[in-house]
Design goal:
Chain lengths: 281, 300
Amino acid sequence: MQINPADASLPADPRRPQSAVAWGLIGLAYLMAGAVLLVPLLLIVVTGFREGVGVYLANIVEPETLHAIFLTVLAAIVVVPINVGFGIAAAWLVTRYEFRGKRLLITFIEIPFSVSPIVAGVIYLFLYGGQGLLGPLLAQFDLKLMFTVWAIFLVSLFVTSPFVARELIPLMQQQGGEDEEAALSLGANGRQIFWHVTLPNIRWALLYGAVLCNARVIGEFGAVSVVSGAIRGQTNTLPLQIELLFNDFNVTGAFAAASTLALLAVLTIVLKSVLERKTRH
Amino acid sequence: MTSLDTAREAPRAVAFGTRLPKARKPGRRHLLPGFGLTFGITALYLVLIVALPLAAMLLKTFSLGWPEFWRIVSSPRAISAYWITFSSAAAAAVFNGFFGLLLAWVLVRYEFPGKRIIDGLVDLPFALPTAVAGLALVTLFGPAGWYGQILVPLGVTVTHAQLGIIVAMAFTSLPFVVRTVQPVLEDIPEDVQEAARLLGATPFQVFSRVILPLILPAFTTGVVLCFARAIGEFGAVVFIAGNLPGMTEIVSLLIFIRLDEHNYPAAAALATVLLATAFVTLFLTNLLQAWQLRYADKSR
């Protein structure tokens, strides 16, 4: 008997929701995701642009806000490349060699993830601040780190140091070192192995880690608020500027700054999902 | 899902590659060049950026002596701050346990319109600066806000109340449970449930007897990570909480206030308490990850 392909019912996609329970769960997910995630995002963007793009731009080019944007971008430019370098070195070390103390080293790489933002600021204060371990030494040379932009860079380095390593370690562990060893046996030197073998293998995960690192540097609030001193027009980053404007009852200004950061967050999510796809295929 | 995907996703579930199976050829210790260079960079960086500042603060705390340390960390104001922080974080973790499990389940098990948007939105709390989240939440729940207009007449005050702290903590730590449960759920083969169903299990039994035990380690890890993150949350909370001592004052804020008052010993002691809880949770999640990997090995 001949089977007419048109007659044969397609095998049901098991993932297509069939029961009422399934649709109920999906509905609940829509509702919750909408109320908890989408509405706050919309509120920020809508309020930020409510009075038109002109008013938004006028608020953004306020000297203090503009300086805060400049400082935030500067922090990202300084911090992200350093932590990309550290992440590559740490991932290479952890996934390509066996050595004593490796577990301890991995624990130290992880630590900044579990330290809360305020504590991250406090530990730097007790190292470089006037009350800190190296405070007297710095004072001797008339150097000041705390409550300057350098302090912002340092705590941002601390807070985001694991981001790139976290993306690279599982990937490089799983890829193993065979490609590199083959290159080595063909006479490649370390630099050639890195640029021509390792980097092409890890580029998307590396970029992904850098995107996450960048988002966190831009958004860091607690740690920066401890060490920056939040001096208007000098050491105020954009997230701190939002709080300042909000406390000054300048709601329009606060929302203009916030919607700028919210748009960056949306961009980060889009980039993240694109890169996630790339690392999987 | 290909096996390559599985291999990549499994370690992702465990935030770090700490207890992964060893690199394929152990014993070939330093075959590749660069050990000295990468070890030097990594160790130096960790000492300068991580270890030294931590040591400096611990040194400060030790210099206080035990009686002084105890006096600070057991003061009534500190104790009420612990209580507010930990109970709010627990409430946020419970909420995200349910909500996160629901989202993970729906995103893995069903195909429906808007699925990719919801999946992307889950990352929002990590991508959005906490100050922006705080501003959004305080505006939404304020008396004139979209939610406040409905809730305040009903007698539910969120801003300047502990409920606000819970809302802020729950928002900022939302992705943890979803992102830890999702990959594990994806790895459970469809036929496992099929078998249970054919053997006569009701959908509820399939979930509670088959699915839940398999995802329990990842789920617990997610909840613990969520709790840990909530304890340390600062940016979003300060906007919404109103910061009334003994009412809505979390530990992070108390530390911040002590710094402002130039009361450095108190700041150091309280920060050490927070740091200790962070290390306990780090230890706990490592144990949970070991449990999860044992599970993953068994179910293979």
